[in-house]
Amino acid sequence: MHHPARLGIALTGVLTVALATAGCGTQGTESDAGTSAARTSVTSCGRQLSFAGPPERTVTLDQSSTETLLELGLQDRMAGTANIKTKVPARYADAYAKVPVIAPKIATGEQLRAATPDFVVAGSADLLTKDRAGTRDELAALKVPTFVSAVDCPERQRAGTSPFELLFSDYENLGKIFGAERRADRLAAEQRAAVAEAGKTAPHTARDEDRPTVVYLYSVFNGMPYVAGGTGLPSEMSRIVGARNAFDDVKEDWPEVSWEEIAKRDPDYIVIGDLSERGRPGDSAAEKRAAMTAHPVVSRLAAVRDNRILEVPGIELDPSVRSVHALGMLAEGLKGVGHARHTH
């Protein structure tokens, strides 16, 4: 399948801009990591964490946490990582090579304890359960503090709190813990600027019904589509660029739906999350396109017929240091294919 030339030009341009603003500029030579010896306290997902000095043997339980710490230049303070779903970006490759992989998939309690961590960082609370790495209480009893991303905490439900701002608060809190405040503050500032830039493309309309609708197709498993629901990051990304997630009313991050339900909602655009490197059947963008064009009803949708389809890295649709890149692609992509609500 090929994209229209105009879409290709738009996405080529935004890749350059968004990668520049996604924090790659923070991989400079200077580092303030570990310069603060003072006792530090932060609150993470309802728990106060106290540190006498910067952690020296941190284990990250997922790729998002791993890439955040690498972006902050903290690879020398990492004793292990786990649950890597795709290749880390090239700019992290050298730093990532220094970090032991304690588990290619989700880490168990035994694997975590064998790494003798003094700090554990997780992008989601479900990695810290009894049948996985252990509960926060269990690890606290071993004097190992646990940090859980604010994006996966109940506070994210507070009205008016953007998931991006919660993500940026993670950077700032981790910066305090490690004495890497300058890098963390700069990263947050760069990404706030990228979010503001993406918002400049939004049309000036306050009415939901005037906004173009988007279906985010994350994966296809056993022939069934999984899309972004109302509680995931794509709903916020849509709002920023002046669009609306077509499945905003489903209160899950990535619900399974039917192709017929996608057709019924007749989206103006479809965003495909490309998970090619994960390697499961139905993960690649090409397979998802093929599934849509082969479906007797979905293939007739205007978004499919007119190729109003954007492809973004699937991993960037979940909150991470990379998410502003997907946001930039969305903003430029919608602008590139004509940002206006079509008449059904």
List the helices and strands and how they pair.
Elements: H1 5-21, E1 40-44, E2 47-51, E3 58-60, H2 63-71, E4 78-82, H3 93-96, E5 101-103, H4 109-114, E6 119-122, H5 136-141, E7 146-148, H6 163-178, H7 181-199, E8 213-221, E9 224-227, H8 233-240, E10 244-245, H9 259-265, E11 269-274, H10 285-294, H11 302-305, E12 309-313, H12 323-336
Parallel strand pairs: 3-4, 3-6, 4-5, 6-7, 8-10, 8-11, 11-12
Antiparallel strand pairs: 1-2, 8-9
Helix pairs in contact: 1-12, 6-7, 7-12
Keywords: Signal
Organism: Streptomyces mobaraensis (Streptoverticillium mobaraense)
Domain Fe/B12 periplasmic-binding: 57-342
Structure notes:
The N terminus is likely disordered. The strands form 3 sheets. The protein has a 5-stranded parallel β-sheet with strand order 5-4-3-6-7. Strands 8, 9, 10, 11 and 12 form a 5-stranded mixed β-sheet that branches. A hairpin with a 2-residue loop joins strand 8 and strand 9. The chain has 2 domains: 149 residues, Rossmann fold, CATH 3.40.50; 148 residues, Rossmann fold (3-Layer(aba) Sandwich). The chain is of the alpha/beta class and 344 residues long. The longest helix is centred in the middle third of the chain and has 19 residues. It has 12 helices and 12 strands.
CATH topology of the largest domain: Rossmann fold
* Uncertain stretches: 1-31, 33-37
- The order of strands across the largest sheet is 5-4-3-6-7
Biggest β-sheet, characterized? 5 strands, parallel
The CATH class assignment of the largest domain is Alpha Beta
- What structural category characterises the helix and strand content? alpha/beta
Per the principal axes of the C-alpha atoms, what is the gross shape?
Answer: globular
Q: How big a fraction of the residues is strand?
A: 15-25%
Distance between the termini: 25 Å
CATH architecture classification of the largest domain: 3-Layer(aba) Sandwich
Number of helices: 12
Q: Please indicate the count of domains.
A: 2
